[in-house]
């Protein structure tokens, strides 16, 4: 039996170039299988969770889940979670939820935030901007090559003791 072999080199998300091979009984079937393998390989994100063709609603759900984990770990405030959920429910999800992640361009998001500012006020727009930025960064962060620590995570610092001025400094005495 004669089988056709179709092959191509593909640069994976980790930067390594690998050969992708597909076999079939006919030349066109082998090419079709190869194209299917390449398409499937290209849609897998480094984090393995979302792709540019997924909807922002999926991103919102994933981000809330991760934020809830941070609240449970004590790294984020439960009040922040409540505030962000309200902003998502009332503004972000209705405005952006049905868009695909790949369609969430900076001008489009700026327009949405501007509309929220006009309709709901500056503080609500700032909260929505923080939510959208956090969601986008949570998706992009695994996929972006981090140059010189430009997108490193937040640093957890130890609490500092407060520095209180002594009485002579306050009164001006020596």
UniProtKB/TrEMBL annotation:
<dbReference type="InterPro" id="IPR010998">
    <property type="entry name" value="Integrase_recombinase_N"/>
</dbReference>
<dbReference type="InterPro" id="IPR011010">
    <property type="entry name" value="DNA_brk_join_enz"/>
</dbReference>
<dbReference type="InterPro" id="IPR004107">
    <property type="entry name" value="Integrase_SAM-like_N"/>
</dbReference>
<dbReference type="Pfam" id="PF14659">
    <property type="entry name" value="Phage_int_SAM_3"/>
</dbReference>
<dbReference type="GO" id="GO:0015074">
    <property type="term" value="P:DNA integration"/>
</dbReference>
<protein>
    <submittedName>
        <fullName>Integrase-like protein</fullName>
    </submittedName>
</protein>
<dbReference type="GO" id="GO:0003677">
    <property type="term" value="F:DNA binding"/>
</dbReference>
<keyword id="KW-0238">DNA-binding</keyword>
<feature type="domain" description="Integrase SAM-like N-terminal">
    <location>
        <begin position="61"/>
        <end position="109"/>
    </location>
</feature>
């Amino acid at each position: 039996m004669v089988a056709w072999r179709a092959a191509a080199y593909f640069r994976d998300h980790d930067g390594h170039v690998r050969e992708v091979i597909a076999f079939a009984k006919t030349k066109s079937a082998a090419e079709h299988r190869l194209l299917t393998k390449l398409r499937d390989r290209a849609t897998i994100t480094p984090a393995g969770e979302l792709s540019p063709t997924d909807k922002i609603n999926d991103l919102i759900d994933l981000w809330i889940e991760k934020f809830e984990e941070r609240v449970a770990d004590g790294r984020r405030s439960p009040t922040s979670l409540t505030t962000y959920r309200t902003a998502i429910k009332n503004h972000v999800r209705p405005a952006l939820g049905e868009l695909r992640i790949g369609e969430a361009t900076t001008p489009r998001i700026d327009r949405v935030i501007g509309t929220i500012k006009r309709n709901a006020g500056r503080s609500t727009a700032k909260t929505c901007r923080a939510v959208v930025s956090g969601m986008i960064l949570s998706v992009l962060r695994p996929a972006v090559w981090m140059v010189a620590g430009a997108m490193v995570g937040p640093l957890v610092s130890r609490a500092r003791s407060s520095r209180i001025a002594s009485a002579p400094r306050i009164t001006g005495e020596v």
